[in-house]
């Protein structure tokens, strides 16, 4: 029972971390796009 609980916690944490990386990656692209518009590229 304890092993299943630990495995579930690890999986949930992994999903959270991976989704956060995608969010930050997308945010970085948005900021880059705005910067290019400001520079007139």
What is the straight-line distance between the termini?
58 Å
Structural class: mainly alpha
Oligomer: single chain
Strand content: under 5%
Q: Give average pLDDT, whole number.
A: 81
Characterize the main sheet: none
Computed CA radius of gyration, to the nearest angstrom:
18 Å
List the helices and strands in order.
Answer: H
Low-confidence stretches: none
* Discrete helix count: 1
Overall morphology: rod-shaped
State the helicity in percent bands: over 70%
Number of strands: 0
Protein name: Entericidin EcnA/B family protein
Family: Belongs to the EcnA/EcnB lipoprotein family.
Pfam family, one: Entericidin
Keywords: Cell membrane, Lipoprotein, Membrane, Palmitate, Signal
TL;DR of this structure?
The protein has one helix at 2-39. With 41 residues, the protein is mostly helical.
Fold and architecture overview:
With 41 residues, the protein is mainly α. It has one helix at 2-39. The longest helix has 38 residues, at 2-39.
Salient structural properties:
41 residues; mainly alpha; 1 helix
What is the element layout, followed by pairings?
Elements: H1 2-39
InterPro entries: Entericidin (IPR012556)
GO biological process, one term: response to toxic substance
Signal peptide: 1-19
């Amino acid at each position: 029972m304890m092993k299943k609980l630990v495995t579930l916690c690890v999986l949930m944490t992994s999903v959270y971390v991976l989704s956060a990386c995608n969010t930050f990656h997308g945010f970085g692209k948005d900021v880059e796009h705005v910067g290019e518009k400001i520079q007139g590229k």
